[in-house]
Amino acid sequence: MTPALGVCYYPEHWPEDVWQDDATRMVDAGLTWVRIGEFAWSRLEPSPGDLQFDWLDKAIDVLGGAGLRVVLGTPTATPPRWMLTKHPDMLAADADGRPRKFGSRRHYCFSHQGYIAECRRVVTLLAERYGHNPHVQAWQIDNEYGCHDTTLSYSPAAQDAFRDWCAQRYQSPDALNRAWGNVFWSMDYADFDEIDLPNLAVTEPNPAHVMAFRRFSSEQVVRFNRAQAEILRRHTDAPLIHNYMGRVLDFDHFDVGADLDIASWDSYPIGFLSDRLDAPEDHKLRFLRQGDPDCQAFHHDLYRAVGRGRWWVMEQQPGPVNWAPWNPAPLPGMARLWAWEAFAHGAEAVCYFRWRQAPFAQEQQHAGLLRPDSADAPALAEACQVAQEMEDLETAQSRAPVAIIFDYASAWAWETQPQGADFHYFNLVFDMYKSLRRLGLSVDILPPDTDAAANYRLVLAPGLATLPDRLMQALSDPTHTSLIGPRSNAKTEEMSIPAPLPPNIPGLDARVSLVESLPPGANIPVGAGHIHKWFEHLEGKAERLVSTAEGQPVVVHANNCFYLAGWPDGDLAAELLSRLCQQAGVETTPLPEGLRVRDTATHRFYFNYNAAPVTHQGRTIPAAGVHWEDL
Ligand code: GAL
């Protein structure tokens, strides 16, 4: 499949007489997709039942007529003001119980039945009108579920729905009391209607209660999305997409993705490094205008898994954004590099956000491909360059030699009970991912219910709170190498410590007898590096691969199945993963800082995230540059 470039466009922001010129310029730039409509509800239905679709008909005609393929968004992330008058209790509530008011976006509670009915109504109208429109070749449902902390809602609607959910899951209050361990602190319930949401408690609520609420909240997103997907499916064969966000873990993206055809995510590398990644200040400064060298790749690999092979970047940062604490401009070359990196990881399309910078409202400081005066912004020339280069390069994906399991429920488990202030599941997985990439490896990400683990020479399962049986079988199969832990198989689904004690891996005589979290600076020397943040004491007779200087086991194994009893720093992870790769027959090539590699079936791509050229094995890759070779 030949990948494509596109752009996000808001016809409702501009006079009709510029649409044609905009469309022509998009096509001239080599763009083929245009996403529209996802925030336009107030212009489609200015008051209840007053439908004004003519302008959208025309916009689609103009864009489609120019040769662009339209992605049409459902506008449900931005309920208009009248919706609130009609459904005053539709707002989500924060953990303090305060309603999250009108005046920006995503002001709805996923559990509000009245709002869900309104969404069904508007999506039905759109699907009936545009489901067979030849220009509408894909649909985006809603926009960035979970953005602005909107998955968890402590509203009355959420409370009612949670009680129902508990009644269905546990069947009787007694069963729920047993599952949660409510005998502790006299927390027993006699009726499902007594169960509140786990906020505003005097001190920490029962982790089983919180975990149940997290599972429920994730399922509400899945249901909300499914309601729209089912309607669209009745009216169109075009693929259904959602645009997820980076490092948003509050709902299970694999579950939402199961109802869709293509996963996409919104990639803002510089904003993320500043705002969303935990990294030392010198790292943030070094990559200030480029973004973290692994963050984009990680999400590309994650969303390739969420989309079961089909994925896009729906929004690509083109210049400074407006929402991070600081918003530097990308180095020249980065708008090209980011697009190529996505294609190397298998993206079918990369759409820049947005076409023209809006001179009004919240995002007036957010760059586009055009300036507010319609002159070219710097990224436009880079987009044109990518479009031209794409004509000469066809590639296809191939399976990576190494995989990491990623599990949203584990993120909830360790947020619910971190035990150490800096124990973040995302960081643990991301650290391992980075270490693999620094060894020059391409990596696949797999969901926890995968059947594919056995296809990889090496599989990592760090921090996986509960190991599903099927995965456990695959990981302990001696024909390939696996690294489980730390903190894997450490909880039951109801957030208790399992019996027998973790990790309880078939054939591995090892039990975690005690865990400790370690504050910054309290590092335990091991080999070339340290264990930091988290350390588990192991008992049992399993063979040791690595021990602390004081002789405590750090890595033990049975055949090719290894268990890691702590959080390794970069140096220790590099040492350990090199050994395991060797054992697994995976070739590694340590890379200079900021240089990363991605192999496809046909090419090896090099991405230089540094502000200076890098020479590696005789080839020089320019600053903020991309280089590819036939494999
Ligand atoms: C995304 C969002 C867009 C726009 C963009 C700005 O999170 O989907 O609508 O707000 O960020 O960077």
Task: Describe it.
An 8-stranded parallel β-barrel has the order 1-2-3-4-5-6-7-8, surrounded by 5 helices. A hairpin with a 2-residue loop joins β17 (553-558) and β18 (561-564). The longest helix is centred in the middle third of the chain and has 29 residues, at 207-235. The chain is 32% helix and 19% strand. It starts with a strand and ends with a strand. It contains 18 helices and 24 strands. The model has no long low-confidence stretch (mean pLDDT 97). The protein has 3 domains: 4-150 and 238-389, Alpha-Beta Barrel (TIM Barrel), CATH 3.20.20; 402-584, Rossmann fold (3-Layer(aba) Sandwich); 595-630, no CATH class. It has 631 residues and is an alpha/beta fold. The radius of gyration is 25 Å and the shape is globular. The structure holds beta-D-galactopyranose (GAL).
Helix-strand makeup class: alpha/beta
Report the β-strand fraction as a percent range: 15-25%
Would you tell me which CATH topology of the largest domain applies?
Answer: TIM Barrel
Which distinct ligands sit in these coordinates? beta-D-galactopyranose
Q: Stretches where pLDDT falls below 50 for ≥5 residues?
A: none
Secondary structure: elements and pairs:
Blueprint: E1 4-8, H1 19-28, E2 33-36, H2 41-44, H3 54-65, E3 69-73, H4 81-86, H5 113-130, E4 136-140, H6 156-170, H7 173-180, H8 207-235, E5 240-245, H9 253-257, E6 262-267, H10 269-275, H11 281-286, H12 295-306, E7 311-316, H13 334-344, E8 349-352, H14 378-391, E9 402-405, H15 408-416, H16 425-438, E10 443-446, E11 458-461, H17 469-476, E12 481-484, E13 511-517, E14 524-526, E15 529-539, E16 543-547, E17 553-558, E18 561-564, E19 566-568, H18 570-584, E20 595-599, E21 603-608, E22 614-616, E23 619-621, E24 626-630
Parallel strand pairs: 1-2, 1-8, 2-3, 3-4, 4-5, 5-6, 6-7, 7-8, 9-10, 9-11, 11-12, 12-18
Antiparallel strand pairs: 13-15, 14-15, 15-19, 16-17, 17-18, 20-21, 21-24, 22-23
Helix pairs in contact: 5-8, 6-7, 6-8, 8-15, 13-14, 16-18
Bound molecules: beta-D-galactopyranose.
Residues 143-144, 147, 266, 268, 315, 321, 323, 353, 363, 366 line the site of beta-D-galactopyranose.
